[in-house]
Amino acid sequence: MHNENNVNSINLGIISIFYRKKLSHLAVGSPFNKMFKKFKDKLAEEVKSSPQRIQQFAQAAQNVLVETQDKALRRISELKEQCSLEQSAKAHLEKALRVELDEKSMKIDALSTQISLIQNKNIHEKDFQNSNENINNQVQLITLNDEHESEENLQSPTATETVVLNNKIEKLEQLLSKYKESLKLSKEKNSQLSTDIQKLALEIESVSKENDKLKSECERVSEDKKLIKELLEKNEVLENTNKALEFSKNKEIAITASSLKIAEQEISSLQKNIEDLKKREEEYAISLAENKLSIHKELEDKEAEIKSLKESVSISQTEHNELNKIINESKNKIVELENERSAMLKDLTEVNSLRTKIHEISLDNNVLLEQIKTFDNNKGRLDEEYKCLELQLKQETAEKLAMIDRNVYLESRNTQLTEENIKKSTHINSLEAQLLELNAKIESIQAHKSDGETAELKIKCNNLESEIQEERVELVKLQTEIEKLLYHHETLQNQNLELNIALDLLKTENDTLQQKLSKMNEMNTCFNECKLKLTEIRKMINIASKDSKSLRDQILSELLPKVREAIIKQNSLIQEELETSKAEFHDRNNTLNVTNSELKFKHDQFIKDMELLEEENKRLKVNLQEKDSDYSKLLEMKNLISAEQEQRIGNLDKNCEKLSEDNKKLLEVVGLSETNINNLKKELNMIQSKNNSNLEQLTILMDEKRQLLEKTIVQDKSIKDILNDLKSSKADYNNLLQSSTEIKNSNLKLEREWNELSNQYNNLEIERSTLAAEIEKLKEELITEKKSLKLLLDKSLQSQTTQTDKNDNILTEKICKCDELKGDNKRLCSDIDGLQIYLSKISKENSDLNDKLREIIATSDNLPDKSDNFINDMDILKTEIRVGKDKIDDLLRENSLLIEENLELKDQIQSQLNTEPSKVMKSIQLTSNTPIINMNEKYDKLLQRKQDLESRITELEQMNNSLNKNVDHNQEKCEKLKTSNEKLQRKLDEALVSLRHLHSLEENTELEYLRNILYEYLTGAGTHSLTLAKVLSAVVKFDNKQTEQVLQKEKERQGLLRQLGLL
């Protein structure tokens, strides 16, 4: 990078020296200026492209810096974790070795005491046995095989015991030697770890040095950027000087012809210098080959763009030439018109009047155009409102359909409830029949059986009466539910009516807008007809001028001055008649047009009113049918309720009679029967009141039905009246059509008379003098209009060229931005692919860890003695899981960054979409005032480019969507991996608990085990405090809530220690 920057600076210095020499010889001649222009353009292009390259190099360097820093930081964190893990493993190994050495020393002491006791066995056999028992109770770390051997040795004679003890001592010595070897190996491993730590520290230093180098390179890149900015400023100054020189060049063309020879000599010297420079540049060709190729490609692209611009300039020049041709043709036509001015002296009065009319019509047209614009704006606003209302209507119709479905469901539910009600009423009747039967049985049994049986029957009767009351309560509840459903149905109907009213209002507003549009269209057609009439009048004037030329010579030779005077008088009379006839003709035409438009409007209104009335009639019929159906349903309900009530009343009367008989017979049941009768009377009153309310509702519905029928009758009458009015209006319309045909015939007659009068009118030569003056005035006006048109054309051409340049620049910028966005999207895609690969690797590692865990758990049951090795493996697995967690966190961060970048890209695309159409609309508004056809073509091209850009933007959005989907998928994978890691951690904790404390649980008692765990928990480093807390809670047998509280407190304590830096 540094070498390339040096080479670029050297080349820029050489180019600046060469550029200064060129500036000293600017005034040499036109060929030298051309060479200078070419060289300057190439240099400007190179200077423009060089900052982009430097920016690219700077971005690449920054990316490399960021990547190396990230890698270094990750490596440092990994190394720190490895060091911490190795230190913890080392400490753990040392502790395990010390514990094992203590155990071995204890075993040696025990064995020495055994040997001494065996030697003194003959003297103290009893004491020896007691000491053996004590030793066996104290030392429980010897294996089961050793215990069996010791028991056999106690039973065997002393000689065999000594041999066995000697063998044991040898074995213990071998174990000691093995432990010493393992200590040596652990020391060697520690030394290797220390050397690895030193190597890693050296690597960290080298990485930091590389980072410093990259920072210095970034500073150099920024300095190069500043130099490029200065060069660009110098280039702008040089361009300004070049413009000044180009202005002075036109003056000095005559002087430069003599200095061409000197310039050629200087060019030869400069060519020699260039050859020297080429030789120097060949030395740097290896480093600049790639840059030159890219510059060459860019130059070719720019040359192609210049060619396209030249072609567009040539097209514009051809268009300009065509416009000049049109102007020349118009000049020739004006000359022809000047030749014919003598013939148009008589007709200029009419022309002036027509001009005034045209001016007025143009003013009206402008007013109408403004009104049309306002109407278009209002129409667009109203269309949007209409669309919104349509969407609301769709939503409301969907809601209505849902409500209708709900109503259907409620009706079905209502029918079900009524059926259930009927079933329950039948059940009540059956129960009442059973009651009667039971009462009859009671009467028959009372004569034969004792008082106890009568009491049981009374209890049964009471139970049946309580069941009847419960079923009556359920009936009341069902009736309340039915009333609620009816109320809900009424509210839905009211909502439907309100929505229909809103729809009708919207339709009326739409109809009024359409009427306004039709009026505007009629105004446009009237304006076009006026234009056509104007063209016809002009044609008539031309024909009249030609006829006047032919008849002029005849009138001069034939007619006498007396005839002239008579013709003048007749002409004046004819003119007056013509004017009166024209005025009448115009008045009649206006009245006819007004009447026609009014009749059309009335006809349209009648048709719309008819349609609205028909729709209302249909809607009312539908409502009538619905209400009839509701009325019929209510009648059915009323009949059912009345039948049920009659049945109940009959049943209740029967019950009352039977209960009175029972009261006479059964004195004990009198109080209960009286209360039942009172309750039944109350229910009867309630049912009667409900029946009255239902009857009132029925009367209200009947009144509503009558009102609706009256409304329908009135509407039918109004429809008949409207139809009669329509028939009368149609008859009037036919009469008007006949009168219009008669008026047309009279107009044709008048036109024929006017033609005859015009033939006579052309013979007159009196008004030539007045018309000549007016024609001269028209000439002057035409000349002034020509000049103004030329100025307008020049301004429009200049504005077009400037706007086309601006639009091209804008389009090139937007295309570059789109290409950059594509590159960013490709980079994001590649990053996401890399992340997916990385996630797959992590998932594989997790699966491997799961397999290892399963193997460890399977082997832990079979090998309780090798707990320390398993604990080490578990610690290694924990470290691996932590590393996996860190990797997952990094991936999540990268995913979040990618999502943010995608959102930024979307915002950029939307801002470009918002800015592009506004710029294009501004350019169109600026160019719309100039009446040039070529602007439409350019506008179409711009629209095509805009569509291309929009298509590109949609593609980019699709890419972004796909990227977002991939990111979401990766996030889901990360979450799944997190859950699996959490599960693995739980399993590891459980395995650690089971492995670390299995041996101690087997050998020590619960109190000793608790003491050891508490000691480790209180004096430990705090790394395994959570697992120890779990173990403590398991040993003490806490509840789930207590264990959760303990673990939460422990986590909070560890968080505080980590914040303080103690962990």
List the topology elements:
Layout: H1 2-24, H2 30-119, H3 125-138, H4 144-155, H5 158-249, H6 253-256, H7 260-283, H8 285-339, H9 348-446, H10 451-558, H11 561-665, H12 670-761, H13 768-862, H14 867-927, H15 934-996, H16 998-1003, H17 1006-1019, H18 1025-1036, H19 1040-1060
Helix pairs in contact: 2-3, 2-5, 2-14, 4-5, 9-10, 9-11, 11-12, 13-14, 13-15, 14-15, 15-18, 17-18, 18-19
GO molecular function: small GTPase binding
Domain GRIP: 1000-1049
Coiled coil: 162-347, 428-523, 596-697, 747-795, 839-908, 932-994
Describe the structure.
The chain is mainly α and 1063 residues long. Among the domains are: 264 residues, no CATH class; 204 residues; 207 residues, no CATH class; 50 residues, no CATH class. The longest helix has 108 residues. The relative contact order is 0.04. The N terminus is likely disordered. Keywords: Coiled coil. This is GRIP domain-containing protein.
What's this model, at a glance?
By secondary structure, the protein is mainly alpha-helical. Among the domains are: 2-265, no CATH class; 352-555; 796-1002, no CATH class; 1011-1060, no CATH class.
Q: Uncertain segments of ≥5 residues (pLDDT<50)?
A: 1-29, 131-157, 860-867, 916-932, 997-1004
Strand proportion? under 5%
Helical fraction: over 70%
Largest sheet: none
Envelope shape: flat
* Order of helical and strand elements: HHHHHHHHHHHHHHHHHHH
Class derived from helix and strand content: mainly alpha
Helix tally equals 19
C-alpha-based Rg, rounded: 56 Å
- Average of per-residue pLDDT values: 66
Distance between the termini: 44 Å
DSSP, total strands: 0
GO molecular function, one term: small GTPase binding
GO cellular component, one term: Golgi apparatus
Domain GRIP: 1000-1049
Pfam family, one: GRIP
